Amino acid sequence: MGIERIGVVGAGQMGGGIAQIAAQAGLGVVLHDIDDALVRRGLDAIERNWKRAVDKGKLSSADQAAARGRIDGVTALARLCDCDLVVEAVVESFEVKAQVFRELDRVVRAGAILATNTSSISVTRIGTSTERPERVIGMHFMNPVPVMKLVEVIRGLATSDATTGEVKELAERLGKTPVECRDFPGFVSNRVLMPMINEAVYCLHEGVGTAEAIDSILRLGMNHPMGPLALADLIGLDTCLAILQVLQDELGDPKYRPCPLLRKYVEAGWLGRKTGRGFYVYGRES
Fold first, then answer.
1. Can 152 be counted among the known catalytic residues?
2. Which of 49, 88, 140, 198 is labelled catalytic?
3. Based on CB atoms within 10 Å of each CB, which residue in 30, 81, 196, 228 is the most buried?
4. CB 107 within 8 A of CB 77
5. In this predicted model, what pLDDT tens digit does every residue of 36-45 receive, in sequence order?
6. How many CA atoms lie within 13 A of 169 on its CB side?
7. Is the per-residue pLDDT at 285 higher than 60?
8. 3-class DSSP assignment, residue 267
C-alpha cells in the first residue's frame, strides 16, 4: 500500500508549502495547527500561491480547485489518525518536536511514517520519542517548498530501509529530488549554509560592508541567486539562530558561534520576512 494521504503538523511557511505541493500531486492532505487562526492563515497563503500560479499560466483553474478540495485544515491531532505519513514542520526546538512526536505516535495509525522537517536536530533523538523509531525519518524540504527541488532525506540509526525507500518515492512523486545524508548536526545543507550566513552577519556587524553590498558581492561574484542576508531573512533569523546553536552545542566548535548581531535582531523580534523586518524591511506582500 502506497502513501496516498499525508498529514502536515504546522501550517506556517514550510508546512503550508508541503501541504500545497502534496495536494497538487493528488494526495489527500490534513493540515494541522494549534488554533483556527493559524490554520486559516496557512490555507490563505496556499490560496495566494495558487492564484499567482493561475495568473502566470502555470496552473489551471480546474487543477487549483481540485487541489484545494484535497486539503482539510484541522486543529485536533487526532484528525491525522488515518494518514499514511505525517510530516512535522513546527519550530526548530527539540522539546517541541519531541512532544509532537509523542502525541503523533499515540494517535496516528500503527505502521504510518512519522517524518520531521527539522533542519538541524538529530533524527535519531527525535525517533526515541516514539515506539516506532524504525518509521521515523528526516524529510528536510527547502524554502520556498513549491520552488526548490531538493529534499534532504536523513535516516536515524533505527530508520528502516523500507521507510527510506517509501519517503524517496514520495519525494519524487511531489516533483522533488531526494538526496540521502547521515544524521549529523545540520546534516549537509545547513552545516555548509549556516556558517556562510553567520559570516555574512559578522561582516555586517563589523562594518565590512552594508547588507546590500554583502549580498551583491555574493550574488554577482559567486553567482548565488540570493545574497546570504536576504536568504537569512527568507529562512527566518530565529530559525538561523536555532540551527547555529545546535551546530555549536552538538559539534563543540567555536566556528559555529552565532554572531551577536544575529542574537540582537532575534531579541528585537526582527525575524525577517515573516515579521516585516530583518536585515531588510519588507512590505505586506513580501
1. yes
2. 140
3. 228
4. yes
5. 999 999 999 9
6. 11
7. no
8. helix
Active site residue 32: no
- All three cell numbers of 89, joined, read 514542520
Q: What cell was used for 104?
A: 503523533
In a domain, 210, yes or no: yes
CB 240 within 8 A of CB 197: yes
Catalytic residue among 49, 92, 117, 119: 119
**Could you report how far apart the first and last alpha carbons of the chain are, in Å?**
41
- CA–CA distance from 85 to each of 80, 116, 221, 239 (Å)? 9, 11, 42, 25
Is residue 117 part of the annotated active site? The answer reads no
**Nearest-angstrom CA–CA distance, 154 and 186:** 10
Task: Return the closest-CA partner of residue 108 out of 130, 124, 127, 138.
Answer: 130
User: Concatenated DSSP letters for 190-202?
Assistant: HHHHHHHHHHHHH
User: Which pLDDT value is given to residue 286?
Assistant: 47
The phi and psi torsions of 176 (rounded to 5 degrees) equal -110, 165
Give me the helix-helix angle, 189-205 and 211-222, nearest 10°.
Answer: 130
From 88, 92, 152, 166, the catalytic residue: 152
Give a yes or no: residue 282 inside a domain.
no
Note whether 194 and 152 are same-domain residues.
Answer: no
Q: Domain of 260: which CATH number?
A: 1.10.1040.10
- Of 181, 199, 223, the last residue of a domain is 181
Q: Output the pTM of the full model.
A: 0.91
Q: In this predicted model, what pLDDT tens digit does every residue of 94-148 receive, in sequence order?
A: 999 999 999 999 999 999 999 999 999 999 999 999 999 999 999 999 999 999 9
The CA distance from 38 to 6, in Å, is 19
142-181 pLDDT, tens digit each: 999 999 999 999 999 999 999 999 999 999 999 999 999 9
